């Protein structure tokens, strides 16, 4: 028996994204979107869950909502950058592009700042840029 495998069918080891957002539909949509792009995705709905998952699963990038229900994503950003300084973090928000918020996110160590209103392909390109 002879098996032929085309190189194009072989997927490289997936890069792993942690996606943190309190809105279930957004978490599910983005998880599915990035999985279809070939990424491994772990999703969390709050800060405690995100920290626990990051401790048990190596992450290559984190996409983090700024407003996590009653939690402040900028505070969680500080935790992640302290524990995982080499893991890029994209702050993700439905809030308008507030220059002060952008400044605070970048000062806290965010590697990028994206709006939920941006097309998903723009977010995917930003993730790929940061992981290149």
Query: Distance between termini?
Result: 39 Å
Can you give the helix content as a percent range?
40-55%
By CATH, the superfamily comes out as Response regulator
Number of discrete domains: 1
In DSSP terms, counting alpha (H) and pi (I) runs of 4 or more, how many helices? Answer: 5
Shape: globular
**Secondary-structure content class:** alpha/beta
Instruction: Give the C-level CATH assignment.
Output: Alpha Beta
The CATH architecture designation is: 3-Layer(aba) Sandwich
Could you characterize the architecture of this molecule?
The chain has one domain (15-131): Response regulator (Rossmann fold), CATH 3.40.50. 42% of the residues lie in helices and 21% in strands. It contains 5 helices and 7 strands. It has helices spanning 24-36, 47-56, 73-83, 99-107, 120-131; strands at 16-20, 40-44, 61-65, 67-68, 71-72, 89-93, 112-115. The longest helix is centred in the first third of the chain and has 13 residues, at 24-36.
Question: Which key phrases capture this entry?
Answer:
single chain; 132 residues; alpha/beta; Rossmann fold; two-stranded antiparallel ribbon; globular
Question: How would you summarize the topology of this molecule?
Answer:
Layout: E1 16-20, H1 24-36, E2 40-44, H2 47-56, E3 61-65, E4 67-68, E5 71-72, H3 73-83, E6 89-93, H4 99-107, E7 112-115, H5 120-131
Parallel strand pairs: 1-2, 1-3, 3-6, 6-7
Antiparallel strand pairs: 4-5
């Amino acid at each position: 028996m002879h098996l032929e495998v085309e190189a194009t069918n072989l997927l490289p080891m997936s890069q792993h994204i942690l996606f943190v957002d309190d809105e279930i539909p957004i978490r599910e949509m983005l998880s599915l979107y990035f999985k279809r792009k070939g990424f491994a995705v772990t999703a969390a709905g709050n800060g405690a869950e995100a920290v626990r998952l990051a401790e048990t699963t190596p992450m290559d990038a984190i996409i983090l909502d700024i407003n996590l229900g009653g939690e402040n994503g900028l505070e969680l950003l500080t935790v992640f950058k302290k524990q995982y300084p080499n893991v890029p973090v994209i702050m993700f928000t439905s809030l308008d592009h507030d220059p002060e918020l952008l400044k605070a996110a970048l000062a806290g160590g965010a590697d990028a700042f994206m709006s939920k209103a941006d097309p998903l392909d723009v977010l995917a390109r930003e993730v790929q840029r940061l992981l290149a």
